[in-house]
Sequence to fold (316 residues):
Amino acid sequence: MYRKLFFALLIHTFLFAQITISSKIDTAIATVGDQITLSVSVHYTDENTNITFPKISDELQNFSIIEQKSISPQKNANRYQQDFIFKIAVFDTGQVEVPSLTLAINGQSFADTRTEKHAISVVSILPPDEQVKPKDIKPPFPLPVIIPWDLLLLLLILLALSFLWYIVYKKWKKQKVLIPYDDKYTDPPHIIALRKLKEAATLPFTTEEEIMLAYTHISHILREYLEGRYFIRALEMPTRDIADNLDFVDIENTLQIKTIDLLQKLDIIKFAKQLPVISEKDNMIASAIAIINQTKTDNFLSQRSGLTELKEKLGK
Fold:
C-alpha cells in the first residue's frame, strides 16, 4: 500500500513540476461596478494537457462574472502557454479579495494547482463628504394643462352631424309613403301555375332542344306551385327532399305519390336526357294540372299568415 502511495506521489511530483501557474489583476483600486480583468497563465510541456476551472462559479460567488474566455495554447520552444481571461465586477465597497481559483489538470485538482489571491480596494464613486445632509423631497412638478382643441372640435362636429342625421331620419320616416298593397293584385299559386301550364302547352316540340326546354319548364312550374302552396323551398331542393318535406304538410298520400312520381319522370328527361314520345308532353301537362286542381286552396290569403303579418308591418 505504501509503495502505491509512493509511486502516486512520485508521478504527481513529476507531472506538476512541469506545470507553472500565474495570475494577475489589472488594477488594485476600483470603483463600484468597474470591470476588473483577472488573467491566469498556465505553462506546461505535454501538449495533451487539458485545463479547466471546475469551481469558478462557487469561488467567485461574491463577484459578477461578466465574461470568461480561454485562449488557445501557444507553443514557445518546448513549452506551451495557455491564458484564461476573466472579467469580473464587484458592487461592495472596502477591501475585497479575489480568491485563489482551483484548476483541474486533465480532470484532477490538487492543492498546488491554484492561483494566488489578490486584494482589491473598492471605493465609492461619490466623494466622502460628512457635511452633506439629506435634501427635502421635491414638490410635485406642475404640469401645464393641455387642452386638445383639435380633438374637441372634431368631437363637436361628429355630434352635430349625428344630431342632424337623426333629425333628417325622423322626418323622412314620418313623411315616407309606403307602396300600397292590395290582395287583389296577388294571384294564388294555383292560378299562376295553371296559366303557365297553358302557355307551356303551346311551346314548340320538334327539336331535341325544344323538347328538353319544354319539360324543364313543366318541372319548374310544378315546383314553383309547391313552393307557393306549401311554403317549402321546392325550387332549390332535389326531388327526394321535396318528398321528405311533403310528409309534414296537409296533402293526401295518393296525391303526394303522384306528385313525386311526376317530378321523377321530369328529372329523368332533364338529367338523363331520355327523350319521350311527343304524346307524353300532353300527358304530363294534364297530370300537373290534375295535381294542382286537387291540392289548391281557395282560402289562400288567410292560410298565408306570413304575408298577413308582412302587411301589418308595412301598414305601421
Confidence is low (pLDDT under 50) at residues 4-17, 181-185. The radius of gyration is 52 Å. The beta strands are 20-25, 29-31, 35-44, 51-52, 64-70, 74-76, 79-89, 94-98, 104-105, 118-123.
